[in-house]
Amino acid sequence: MARLIDDGVSWKPPSPYECSGPVSFYGRRTPESVEYSAEQKSLNGKKVKVYREYSVFASSTPNGKKEFRDEISTIDSRGFLINIVTTEGTLDPRTVTLIRKQSWDANTKIKSIVAPIK
Whole-prediction pTM value? Predict the structure, then answer.
């Protein structure tokens, strides 16, 4: 049976409705159009699959430009994610405003984490 450990610290916010720092709230936007594609490629001599989702959104401001999000995911032959690259921006002309890159290395050996014993 798991034993609850009390650290003696009370974690209560001043108000249940308070957020500190600059906060922005964004809901999921519904795209005007979405294109999906998948292709098999070779990366460092190994077969990988590359999946792409290209979405176009209506302008978020009156008289503004349409926006896009292009997400490309690379998955190895075992089904593990290698990386995801997301590019966002506006159209007419295409202007990139954000590039987000995430990557994973499934071959790195990590030393086990052991909790200290009191």
Answer: 0.67
